[in-house]
Each structure stands twice: as C-alpha cells, then as structure tokens.
Design goal:
alpha/beta; binds NADP nicotinamide-adenine-dinucleotide phosphate; 6 helices; about 260 residues; seven-stranded parallel sheet; single chain; globular
Length: about 260
C-alpha cells in the first residue's frame, strides 16, 4: 500500500526538512507521483544546502520556506507564505528536535541540570510542535483525510523510563506527547478528519544520534531511508480512529 493511495493528489508539509530524518521524508515524498506538492520548512540556509539543492531538481513540486519554529511570528509568516501554494494539507511531518547543540548537552546527573538548558529543550522539542498544531488547524481541516505527525521519542515515555538521565530531552518529549494528545482531543471536535500522531523513529543514523550511537548494535541503528520507509508504513495505517496515539517505528503503540 502507498500512503494516501485513496487520494488523487496529496499536499505535504515537512518541518525541520533539512535535518537527517526530515530530508529523508522530503526525498521519499517527492518519489510518490500523487504527492502534488511538498512544502519544506527549514531554519537556516547554511545547514540546508542538500534540501535547497533538491529544489532545483523539483521546482514545480518542492517549495522551501525559511521558518524559525521557535518564533511564533516567523511560523505565522511561513504559513501565510504557504497559503498561495496550497490551501489544504493532507500530511504534516514535524521533524524538529534537539538532543545536543551549542546550548545543550544531555544531562547525566542532577548536578548538570540548569534552567536555561531545560528551557531550550522545552522550547525546541515541545512548544514548537504545539504552535504548529495551533496554526495549521485551518489547513488540515477539510473533507479529505489528514495527518499531523510529529517525531517524538520512546525515551519520552514515562512508563518506559528505567535508565534515568537525559532529563531535559526526556521531559520535553513527554511534554510534547501531552501537548499533542491534548490537541488531538480538540482536533477531534474541530477537524474531524485529522489524526494527530506521535512517532518514535528508532535510533537512526543522523547528526542527533551520532555522538551516542557507538554502543548501538548495527542492526539497531537505522539508516534514514529505512527509518522513513518504516514510518511511512506506520502512517499508511493511520485513520481518524488512531487520533492521539503514540506509535513506535514498527507500528506498535508505546506506553505514555
Ligand atoms: N535520530 C534518532 O536516533 C532519533 C531517535 C528518536 C527520536 N528522534 C527525533 O526525530 C526528530 C528528527 O531528528 P533527526 O535525527 O533528524 O535530527 P537532526 O538531523 O539533528 O535534525 C533536527 C532538526 O531539528 C531542527 N532544530 C534543531 N534545533 C532547532 C532549533 N533551536 N530551532 C529550530 N529548529 C531546530 C534542525 O534544524 P537546524 O539544522 O537548523 O538546527 C533539524 O531540522 C527529532 O525530533 C528527534 O528528537 C530522533
């Protein structure tokens, strides 16, 4: 089966489209003939060269827009720029997330906790996704099926937490799940053909996992292509009944 094969044409938005998994989604969606347009939100030009190069290959179907998701005014401006390109979305895949950057490193102990780092984790991993859900509702609300998918992480499962550590990343993904689960209930009233789902991609070979992937057995470290294919397969089986669910890469549901 192919995602949305019951629809003649599909409009998709990939957010964090320059990142490892985000770019993989853009490439995979452009290979599907019934995907009429892919809008790609990226934050900064210098880390988005591979994405921007794709635009010259697909000038009619790929539209790249610079949007900083942590700034609501920038997000609203990006959505307004998108409207003339598409006034209805069938698929949104939000791939924005941070585990480590120049501002944060995952904390190994309570001693390493500080409020500025926690704020950064929550801003990028939790708040940006709920702002997207806030502003995209009018574009997802139409008579055809639509899916709003966000990449979460199994490590954000409170029920599954046995190892501890990585306070900010874990907590920001748990907050992401709660914010979107709550949004899924409001969407069910206001946009009844939309499913909001959270996806755990499995450990995938990207810049995000690189510093921590040495101990991961090769068969447990997915290539981006494998990760994206697996997640597209999960999305194929999503109907409005799966609104508000947290799925792992193999289609099983994860505990909150
Ligand atoms: N890779 C894994 O093993 C793994 C496992 C579980 C969950 N995930 C989740 O999957 C998603 C995609 O991860 P990935 O592996 O593709 O990571 P990645 O290659 O590092 O991509 C991360 C994306 O998030 C954006 N981003 C990071 N910091 C930002 C900020 N401050 N403001 C706005 N955007 C920001 C990046 O944009 P810039 O390039 O502009 O920074 C990039 O588009 C994330 O939510 C991650 O938590 C990944």
């Amino acid at each position: 089966m192919v995602l949305f094969s019951h629809l003649a044409s599909v409009n998709a938005l990939v957010v964090g489209a320059n990142g490892g998994i985000g770019l993989g989604f853009v490439q995979a969606l452009l290979k599907l003939d019934h995907v009429l347009s892919v809008v790609a939100f990226y934050r900064q030009t210098d880390t988005s060269q591979a994405l921007l190069a794709l635009q010259t290959e697909y000038p009619e179907r790929l539209h790249c827009l610079a949007v900083d998701l942590t700034d609501e005014a920038s997000l609203v401006a990006g959505i307004n720029q998108m409207r003339p390109l598409t006034n209805r979305l069938h698929l949104v895949i939000n791939c924005v997330g941070v585990l480590h950057d120049h501002l944060v490193q995952p904390e190994k102990s309570l001693q390493q906790i500080n409020a500025a780092q926690l704020t950064h984790y929550f801003q990028v991993n939790s708040m940006s996704a709920i702002l997207l859900a806030k502003h995209l509702l009018p574009l997802l609300n139409h008579e055809e099926q639509s899916i709003f998918a966000t990449l979460s992480a199994k490590i954000g499962s409170i029920g599954d937490n046995q190892l501890g550590g990585w306070y900010g990343y874990r907590a920001s993904k748990a907050a992401l799940n709660m914010l979107l689960k709550t949004a899924s209930i409001e969407y069910a009233r206001k946009s009844k053909n939309t499913s909001i789902v959270m996806l755990h991609p499995g450990t995938t070979d990207t810049g995000l996992s690189k510093p921590f992937s040495r101990s991961v057995p090769p068969d447990k470290l997915f290539s981006v292509e494998r990760c994206v294919n697996q997640l597209l397969k999960v999305l194929e089986s999503v109907t409005p009944k799966e609104n508000g669910c947290f799925f792992s890469w193999d289609g099983t549901q994860l505990p909150w």
